[in-house]
Amino acid sequence: MSNEKTITLRINGKAAQATVPAHRTLLEALRGLGHVEVKCGCEKGDCGACAVLIDGTAVDSCLTLAWMAEGREITTVVGLGSGEAMHPLQQAFSDLGAAQCGYCIPGMIIAADSMLRQTPDPTEEEIRIGLSGNLCRCTGYVKIFDAVGEAAAVMRDGGETK
Questions:
Q1: What digits encode the pLDDT tens for the residues 37-50?
Q2: What is the secondary structure of 2-66 as a DSSP string?
Q3: pTM of the model
Q4: Which of 39, 68, 73, 101 is the most buried (most CB within 10 A)?
Q5: Which of 9, 158, 30 is nearest to 73 (CA)?
Q6: Domain boundaries, the chain
Q7: Which residues contact 36 (CB under 8 A, 6 or more apart)?
């Protein structure tokens, strides 16, 4: 008897099927489906590199079993925007140079988006708390916090980043 189950995941607005064992994490399932924008960091919920939105709330996909996300809306950083249609957070991170190696940035942007849904006009302290589950080993965080503040202002004004 196999413990594998075929599930349908809704990722960035599109349905995808995966056959997974009960213990397969959402991180493993997403990467297996080609979503390499979801980074594999610590695999124990400490770094936030694997963060995705599930129904608008950031979760560490390394701590979430794939079957738990069935029927829910999963959004990766690519689902927020890309290319010519970047999300204000992506644009602000780019404009303000808020990345060095870039490995942690997808998770940072996901965490920031989740935080801004709850707190659209955050103080610097609220931004720091909102991103506290995400580690960056390259930057000093200042540009990251600045980018989130800039994007928050743009999102409140409904405009484009500068």
A1: 999 999 999 999 99
A2: --EEEEEEEETTEEEEEEEETT-BHHHHHHHTT-TTS----SSSSS-TTEEEETTEEEETTSSBG
A3: 0.94
A4: 39
A5: 9
A6: 4-77, 81-157
A7: none
